[in-house]
Amino acid sequence: MVTLHIGIDDTDSPRGGCTTYIAALLVEKLSNMGATFIDYPNLIRLNPNVPWKTRGNGALCLRIKCDDTTMDKIFEIVADTVEENSDLKFKNTDPGIVFFKGTRVPLPIRRFAKKTIQSIVKMEYALRLIEESKAEALGYGTGYGLVGALAAIGETLEGDHTYEAIAYRTPENWGTKRQVCISSIKEMNRQTKSQTFNNLDPETQRILITPRGPDPILYGIRGETAEIVVHAHNIVEQLEPIERWVVFRTNQGTDAHLKKVKTIVDVKPFHPVNFVGTVISPPRLIPKRHRIFTVEDDTSKVDCAAYEPTGTLRRAARELIGGDILEISGGVRPSSSEHPLTVNLEKLRIIKLAPKLTKWNPLCPKCGRRMGSMGVGQGFRCKKCAFRSSNMKKITVSQKRSLSESLYITSPRSQRHLTKPLSRYGNEKNSKPRKLIAHWHSP
């Protein structure tokens, strides 16, 4: 028996398709061939800021044990399944398939995966690693999907990870309105909310498990264990037939994309970053109720944007003042003729709040009323008792801040796949599962 890692990426388009669906089809086909899965299908979300990304920028890896004599047949089945279920007529769909044989994924490929999640890598880098590791690859179009396919093999999820149970629609329903009982989703959330996340948005009650595009997914439920997402899936009442369902192990909800940079001058376009800066001045309001503020350090300064849909995060950003020290996390938007380099906020941690000081006219020493100014440098006069003084000065008062020195995250409805929600803090994992549960996909 040999261990085979199969990476797949870039099979979908805005018109439809889904790489996880191809993985789900292959789970059934490879199982029927006698292959043994040594891990759940790995759904790896890559850098969400690259301008040429697919909708969710997710790549897939299937890790199996199989008989060496079946390798050629497996290659054929994977290639045929990808070709039959990819939108190859769409000009920007460039699928890639990588096959790597070996019990341990080489360190250079694992490092490549981390770079692909946190930054931008070149095609040549992937091709060189494929050749050096003696992997086999098949690319379509430009073949750029080979980058994600290799990255999916390299991200073995040996640290923090989560799970997602995805249910797929029958083909005749693709592109139509999804039919799921809303009350059952809310009941599922009530029963499992300590172990699942982002089922619905608490502010708007918007359902978050059902996508909006023409892809085959009916819904996806994210959680801390394979058992809990299967349990949650069984609570949801489907009002249309399900073709199949599968549990994926994934880097979603782990902040795996955020890369710490030491100084603001190191902030680069299209990169997810994490850094510390000091607010220069109160946030300014721009059209559509977005809030923009500027932070600086000893090396440079950069704008940060809290957009209206971010809800909780935007409301926190609204209350910032100059001198607040923040830990900023988000994706970097390049500069243009309309705006400078900007960090689109995913979360901010307030390290230290600056004092909010306000100057008030002094109180009258005779009657206690607030005095009025007689003009610049001319002192104060009490309108009630007519007391005057040229020696009195304004009083500086420290106002209570509405913020606390804590973490603020964008509301669930606008969280990216990789953003770690508040509920996951303290639930991080540091090892792979020892074994798979008995029923992790449909029969």
The CATH topology of the largest domain comes to Alpha-Beta Plaits
Number of domains: 3
Structural class: alpha+beta
CATH first level of the largest domain: which class? Answer: Alpha Beta
- Beta-strand level of the residues, as a percent range? 25-35%
> In angstroms, what separates the terminal alpha carbons?
24 Å
Structural Rg: 27 Å
Give unreliable regions as ranges: none
Helix percent reads: 10-25%
What is the averaged pLDDT score? 94
The CATH architecture term of the largest domain is 2-Layer Sandwich
Beta strand count: 23
**Main sheet record:** 10 strands, mixed
Count up the helices.
Answer: 8
From the spread of the alpha carbons, the general shape counts as: elongated
Walkthrough of the structure:
- The chain is elongated, with a radius of gyration of 27 Å.
- Helix content is 20%, strand content 28%.
- With 443 residues, it is an alpha+beta fold.
- A hairpin with a 3-residue loop joins β13 and β14.
- The longest helix has 15 residues, at 71-85.
- α1 runs antiparallel to α2, α3 (107-118) crosses α5 and α6 runs antiparallel to α7.
- Strands 1, 2, 3, 4, 5, 6, 7, 8, 9 and 10 form a ten-stranded mixed sheet that branches. A five-stranded mixed barrel has the order 12-14-15-17-16.
- The protein has helices at 19-32, 71-85, 107-118, 123-132, 145-154, 182-192, 226-235, 312-318, and strands spanning 2-9, 36-37, 42-45, 58-66, 96-101, 136-139, 162-169, 196-197, 217-223, 242-250, 259-260, 272-279, 284-286, 290-296, 301-306, 325-333, 342-352, 356-360, 372-373, 380-381, 388-389, 395-399, 407-409.
